[in-house]
Design a protein that fits this description.
The complex is a heterodimer.
Chain A (H helix, E strand, L loop, with lengths): L1 H26 L1 E8 L6 H20 L7 E3 L2 E3 L4 H13 L4 E3 L3 H14 L3 E2 L17 E2 L5 H15 L8 E7 L2 H4 L2 H11 L2 E7 L7 H11 L3 E5 L4 H11 L7 E3 L6 H7 L2 H4 L3 E4 L8 H12 L11 H25 L6 H9 L27 E6 L2 E4 L8 H10 L2
Parallel strand pairs in A: 1-2, 1-3, 1-4, 4-5, 5-6, 7-8, 7-9, 9-10, 10-11
Antiparallel strand pairs in A: 11-12, 12-13
Helix pairs in contact in A: 2-13, 3-4, 5-7, 9-10, 13-14
Chain B lengths: L12 H5 L5 H21 L2 H26 L7 H19 L3 H20 L7 H21 L1 H4 L5 E3 L4 E2 L2 E2 L3 H24 L1 H11 L1 H6 L4 H27 L1 E3 L5 H14 L4 H25 L6 H26 L3 H15 L5
Antiparallel strand pairs in B: 1-4, 2-3
Helix pairs in contact in B: 3-8, 3-9, 3-11, 3-12, 3-13, 4-5, 4-6, 4-11, 5-11, 8-9, 9-11, 12-13, 12-15, 13-14, 13-15
Classes of the chains: A alpha/beta, B mainly alpha.
Chain lengths: 412, 355
């Protein structure tokens, strides 16, 4: 009996110690909830985006964390479905996440109201709701990257520069995936058509867009555009590239918006030789030439491992870095503002809204996020497929901010 | 539900048709209701309540689909679209007319029922796999229509934000409040279905399922009852869509695509065709299994592979586990979880004298 009670005391003491230890560890740990799609219809993005997030968090932790706090980004795969996304959100909320990286447009829309009720800032770079650039109406949703509206405006600006600074009498084709995301830039393009005087024709590609031969012939042989904007998803961007090539249409007259612009699309189209000249629009810098990527490689080397193969795809991987880096920066701002305490989600929201000119040596655009502008300006860069990689064609730029602002306002 | 009966001799048709063969059955149901309506929301953490909420919504949809597929023997892979019909009907009523939930929920159901009845018309000429394709066409047509008609979809984003439902002047915000709200409709759906099946209409459905020519010969108007089956089933789907809309605060057709229709079919096939308990078990199984699989892998996966690899392995292994378990349960009992439960119950009913 005595032995038993001693044993029980010892176990209890050990348990208490463990719990206490855990408590202090939790005090010094900040959780960022992460959703991902590694198995659903957009897995081509997820399998590169999410490792990048984890790599960046590991890099920050290996350098001592943020202001003395370690970071943790538990990841849940939502399969691009709404109910699992709701479950993942509730779970990560329960785990005390101060901010969240959501994934998927319908999922962001479904969770938006919860974010406001629970006061958790969340990011949706390159997807979600364009109108959420307006921080007044969507206080806890941060697109942090150029929305489809800004992308549409930037695409027209780029076409204008390419075609000699005047679009009057020019013909522009807008080829889009026939879903809400594909429809989104339309109002911007129609507005600009009036003010810039070009002829716009739209070509809807029914999902999944794996058969575009006749449509591309219609575009290139009948409409004969001076410039083409591709707003396609999934497998269709590569199909489009292949068909333009087959129709003999110069790919230097084609610009793919952000989800038609990864290395995977070029590979699927038949490689860099086929896609030579193709323009892509990016909200995070593409390519390998950034210090943060060298640091991650060095981190892996220090552990005696090879850098992960996900890093070969620079476009999507770098977007993951951008997203993770902005979360870390927001948390850093929050800790600095509250004097070194563990930040609350409300403080992290303020932290996001005080991100200014955080560029990660060129990988991130010079964002100016504020309480009213959660997009940070709508900056993009254009890259061109040239000689086996993406070559930077422009610096960070934004276009027609007044037209985009009017659209944001009109969405109310 | 759990009781063992002995010496029960039914002497009238009314007794044979009774929902509760013995008083103890009534008490068992009352105890269950108490557990889930009073104790669960009071004791469970918000996270677990949120999982229950997803299950509750799925229950309504699965019950509705089971009326059509399980009881009437017609197939539909357009139920995701019927849900979106209900969702957009309710969302438009709320945003344009500020209608309260007790108008929008029936209205969403009725609209879905009308469209479901139209979609059901081909079922008079075609059966089985051909009917499946006809309803698939309905799914795609409805998706396309919502996507391209701004009057329905509320703009190019095809999503309409909806405020939370208000009950007695309080907007339902917390998961527990929403749980009780959803539970009310699940109870109505269960009671409604179990009474429908015992009625003249329900018996006609079952007769059509078993042998439609024979049903016609004994005087059942097949045309009318097949359309009724589509309409009632779509009504449930429409209500499911409205509940989703209220639960998420937004109507968006991308939440109701083809995969949703397939998920619901999976629920009733795994749960058991033509049974109410089966629909509920199926809804629980399909909603909970991926979550449970992830818990399991997160807890024990770390023993075999590194944490970084785990992030990549869990989602894929989860799908394999999910598929594997569905096959396992269907091989063990092709008639679904409901039959499995009955087998277990029947075994213990005569235990230890199995002959």
């Amino acid at each position: 009996m005595r032995i038993l009670s001693t044993l029980a005391t010892a176990v209890l003491a050990a348990a208490t110690l463990c719990l206490a230890g855990q408590a202090t560890a939790e005090d010094k740990e900040i959780t960022i909830g992460t959703q991902c799609d590694r198995t659903g219809p957009t897995q081509i993005v997820g399998i590169r985006l999410c490792p990048a997030v984890q790599d960046y968090i590991a890099l920050v932790n290996s350098k001592g964390g943020v202001e003395g706090f370690k970071l943790k980004a538990p990841e849940i795969d939502n399969e691009y479905k709404v109910p699992p996304a709701v479950e993942a959100y509730e779970r990560q909320k329960q785990e005390g996440s101060v901010s969240m990286m959501l994934y998927g447009t319908p999922q962001v829309q479904a969770l938006n109201q919860k974010l406001e009720e629970d006061h958790i800032p969340s990011t949706s770079p390159g997807f979600g709701i364009s109108a959420s650039a307006d921080g007044g109406r969507f206080p806890y949703l941060f697109p942090i990257a150029a929305t489809y509206w800004s992308q549409g405006a930037a695409a027209i600006k780029f076409a204008k520069d390419k075609l000699g600074g005047d679009l009057h009498g020019k013909k522009i084709a807008y080829v889009y995936y026939d879903n809400p995301a594909g429809h989104e830039p339309l109002p911007i393009l129609e507005d600009l058509q009036k003010s810039e005087g070009f002829e716009l024709r739209t070509f809807a590609v029914p999902p999944p867009g794996v058969e575009m031969g006749a449509q591309v012939l219609d575009i290139t042989q009948r409409f004969k555009p001076d410039f083409v904007i591709d707003h396609l998803f999934g497998r269709s961007p590569s199909v489009a590239i292949k068909e333009y090539k087959r129709a003999g249409f110069p790919l230097s007259k084609v610009l793919g918006l952000v989800w038609a612009s990864a290395e995977a699309d070029i590979d699927a189209a038949g490689g860099w030789g086929v896609a030579e000249g193709y323009h892509t629009l990016q909200f995070a810098g593409a390519g390998d030439d950034y210090p943060v990527r060298r640091e991650i490689k060095a981190m892996y080397k220090a552990q005696g491992k090879e850098p992960p193969k996900e890093m070969d795809d620079t476009v999507i991987y770098n977007r993951g870095l951008l997203q993770a880096a902005l979360h870390v920066e927001a948390i850093r701002n929050a800790i600095k503002a509250n004097g070194g305490k563990k930040p609350t989600s409300e403080e992290v929201k303020k932290g996001f809204e005080s991100i200014h000119d955080f560029t990660l040596d060129g990988l991130v655009p010079p964002l100016q996020i504020s309480g009213t502008d959660h997009e940070g300006g709508g900056w993009v860069q254009i890259f061109q497929a040239k000689g086996g990689k993406f070559v930077k064609e422009t610096e960070w730029f934004r276009a027609y901010p007044e037209v985009v602002a009017a659209a944001v306002k009109k969405a109310e | 539900m759990f009781h063992r009966e002995s010496g029960v001799f039914k002497t009238s048709y009314a007794a044979d048709m009774a929902l509760y063969p013995l008083p103890i059955a009534k008490w068992a149901v009352a105890a269950f209701a108490g557990l889930f309506i009073v104790i669960a929301p009071l004791t469970l953490d918000e996270y677990y309540v949120s999982i229950l909420n997803l299950i509750l919504i799925a229950c309504v949809g699965a019950l509705g689909l089971n009326i059509l597929v399980g009881y009437t023997g017609q197939i539909s892979i357009g139920h995701g679209a019927f849900m979106s019909v209900g969702a957009y009907t309710a969302a438009n009523l709320v945003t344009q007319l500020h209608a309260p939930f007790w108008i929008t929920i029936p209205a969403g159901g009725v609209m879905a029922a009308l469209i479901g009845a139209v979609v059901g018309i081909p079922s008079l000429r075609i059966k089985g796999i051909y009917l499946a394709i006809a309803t698939l066409a309905a799914q795609l047509i409805i998706e396309w229509t919502i996507n391209h008609v701004p009057a329905i979809s509320g703009g190019v984003q095809a999503s309409i934000q909806v405020p939370r439902p208000t009950v007695f002047g309080t907007p339902l915000k917390t998961q527990t409040q929403l749980y009780l709200f959803l539970m009310a409709f699940v109870v109505i759906a269960i009671v409604g279905t179990s009474n429908l099946i015992r009625s003249r209409i329900g018996r006609a459905f079952i007769a059509i399922r078993d042998q439609d020519i024979a049903a016609e010969i004994i005087g059942i108007n097949i045309f009318r009852y097949k359309l009724w089956a589509f309409a009632i089933s779509s009504f449930y789907a429409g209500v499911t869509g409205v509940l989703y809309t209220y639960y998420l605060g937004i109507a968006n057709y991308e939440q109701f695509q083809l995969t949703v229709s397939i998920d619901y079919l999976a629920m009733i096939i795994i749960g058991g065709l033509g049974s109410i308990l089966g629909s509920i078990l199926g809804a629980i199984f399909v909603t909970l299994l991926p979550i449970a699989a992830r818990w399991f892998l997160e807890s024990f996966g770390g023993l075999f592979v590194s944490q970084a690899d785990l992030a990549n392995i869990i989602p894929n292994l989860r799908l394999i586990l999910f598929g594997g378990l569905i096959i396992f349960f269907l091989v063990v009992e092709p008639e679904g979880l409901n039959r499995l439960w009955r087998n277990i119950r029947n075994y213990f009913r005569v235990w230890p004298f199995s002959y």
